[in-house]
Every structure is written in structure tokens, then in C-alpha cells.
Write a structure and sequence with these properties.
By secondary structure, the chain is an alpha/beta fold. The chain has helices at about 35-50, 65, 80-90, 90-105, 170-185, 200-230, 235-240, 255-270; strands at about 5-10, 15-25, 25-30, 55, 75-80, 115, 120-125, 130-135, 145, 150-155, 190-195. It has a domain at about 5-155: Ribonuclease Z/Hydroxyacylglutathione hydrolase-like (Metallo-beta-lactamase, Chain A, 4-Layer Sandwich). About 40% of the residues lie in helices and about 20% in strands. Strand 10, helix 5 and strand 11 (about 190-195) form a beta-alpha-beta unit. Bound molecules: zinc ion (ZN). Zinc ion binds near residues 157 and 196.
Length: about 270
């Protein structure tokens, strides 16, 4: 199998990545996104290459990563148990419907799950052997993937060159980045695939991981120092907001800077 037996597709919103991975006359698509038209293009490409999409793999339950599942009624849709829970509870479908209204886009219908795995286990999807591992930090349900035969490390909404970290748990995110840095150094893949922005070489991915970890450590310290100094929540928040993220993001996501600060304050106050 040649190392580059994959193609990346980019949705117009937030440079969202969908990855088509090919092997033995069939293909697997990771996070098919976003609009009906964009997802149909991926399906057509699989057919055109003589490798129809038979498997769908999902990194996490945010709407922009699960909104294309409905376009593949005949494929097996696999995800971690925690993400499956978000789908079966109806929470993911609700957020897809909200997003379709908000962004005025036509999406592919209801998401579903056919195969839920326990994160950490390796799974066989047709000819694809996929090593799974928990990727918490951005969301609690995230899964990372290693598809060794194609040299791929797939990291969901982490290590993005076009966004700063959006951390629902800054503590989990710091630990996860430390783990990814170790993996990139000691067991490097050929390519790292973030959920937003272009593929990365290991060296670039390491640079992003280190910058992101530096930002989250600085945010943690700023909030901790302000709490220790007896500041009010508003003052603590101002201190946290003074920590600059490592890179810009889409203007409509700028508010995530304040989201990170609030999550960091919640974690520190909950343990104070
Ligand atoms: Zn995303």
C-alpha cells in the first residue's frame, strides 16, 4: 500500500477536514462534512476511484463532524461509545438541526451509529485496521485514530493550524497534548490529520502541540495566581483573557477564547 493512499477534502466552513482512506477496492471516510453537496463529492470520489465508501469513522460528536453520516446509508458507521451516546440520546441531531438553521446550509439528514467501540481498542473495518485512543480536552467524547498501514494519525479537533485549542476541559487537554507530543516523538506517523486545516508533517504537528500546551499552561497559571491572590471572578477572568492564544481562528469562533478562560476558572474553583 503506498503511503499516500488517502485524500483530504475541505469543507468551506472552518476548513473542516474529511478524510477518504483507500485500501483493497473500498474506502473509509473520517468525519464526512459538511453540506449535502460537499459530502456527496466525497462519495462520488470513492466511486470514481473504484473504492466505494463502506466505512465511516467519527472523531467526536460535534455537529460539524457527524452531519454527513446520513449520506452513507449503506456504510458501517463506527465511533467511540461516548460519541455513540451523544447520537443515541438525540443531542447530536438537535445540534445538527440548529446548525443547519444558523448557517443556512442543507445537511445530509440524521446521524446514526452502527458500531460503538471502547476507546483504546483496535478495530477492523474491512481491510482497515484502526487503533483507537481517547482524545479528551476539546470534548470528553473524542477518539484519536492511528491507521498504520497508511501512516496516518487522526486527531479530531486538536493540533489545528487554523484554530487555537477550544478546551471543554483544560486539564484534560494539557494531559492529552503531553501524550500526543510523546507519541509524535517516539512513534511518529507519516502524516497528522487535524479536523480543521491542512495535513501536517510531524515537525509541524509538534510545533503546534508545544505552542498549544504553552498557551494552556500559561492560562492555568494566570487563573491560579489570580484566584490565590483573592481576586473576584471578573478580575480572574480579565487575567485569563490577557493570555494570548497561540494563533488566530475564524472570527465567528473568537468567543472560544473566553470559553477557555471560563472552563479553566471552573476547574480551579471546583478543586479550590
Ligand atoms: Zn470541529
Amino acid at each position: 500500500m503506498p503511503a499516500a493512499a488517502w485524500e483530504r477534502f475541505e469543507a468551506s466552513l472552518w476548513s473542516t477536514t474529511s478524510l477518504l482512506v483507500l485500501a483493497d477496492g473500498e474506502s473509509l471516510v473520517v468525519d464526512p462534512a459538511i453540506t449535502l453537496h460537499e459530502v456527496a463529492r466525497i462519495d462520488r470520489r470513492g466511486l470514481q476511484l473504484g473504492t466505494p465508501v463502506r466505512h465511516v469513522l467519527i472523531t467526536h460528536g460535534d455537529w460539524d463532524h457527524v452531519c454527513g453520516i446520513g449520506a452513507f446509508p449503506d456504510a458501517t458507521v463506527a465511533m467511540g461509545e461516548e460519541t455513540a451516546e451523544l447520537l443515541t440520546s438525540g443531542a447530536a441531531e438537535k445540534s445538527i438541526e440548529r446548525a443547519a438553521d444558523q448557517y443556512e446550509v442543507v445537511l445530509s439528514g440524521s446521524p446514526r451509529v452502527d458500531l460503538a467501540f471502547s476507546r483504546g481498542s483496535a478495530i477492523a473495518l474491512g481491510p482497515f485496521l484502526v487503533e483507537t485512543f481517547p482524545l479528551t480536552g476539546h470534548t470528553a467524547d473524542g477518539s484519536g485514530y492511528r491507521i498504520r498501514e497508511q501512516g496516518l494519525l487522526i486527531v479530531g479537533d486538536h493540533l489545528s493550524p487554523v484554530e487555537f485549542p477550544f478546551a471543554s476541559s483544560p486539564a484534560a487537554y494539557r494531559t492529552m497534548l503531553a501524550g500526543l507530543i510523546e507519541m509524535l516523538r517516539e512513534d511518529p506517523p507519516d502524516a497528522v490529520i487535524p479536523g480543521h486545516g491542512p495535513p501536517l508533517e510531524v515537525k509541524e504537528a509538534l510545533g503546534i502541540a508545544e505552542a498549544d500546551l504553552g498557551y494552556l499552561r500559561e492560562l492555568h497559571k494566570a487563573v491560579l495566581d489570580a484566584v490565590d491572590g483573592g481576586c473576584s471572578r471578573e478580575e480572574v477572568r480579565t487575567g485569563g483573557l490577557a493570555v494570548d492564544p497561540p494563533r488566530p481562528c475564524a472570527p465567528d469562533l473568537e468567543e472560544m477564547r473566553g470559553f477557555n478562560v471560563d472552563r479553566q476558572i471552573d476547574e480551579i474553583l471546583a478543586t479550590a
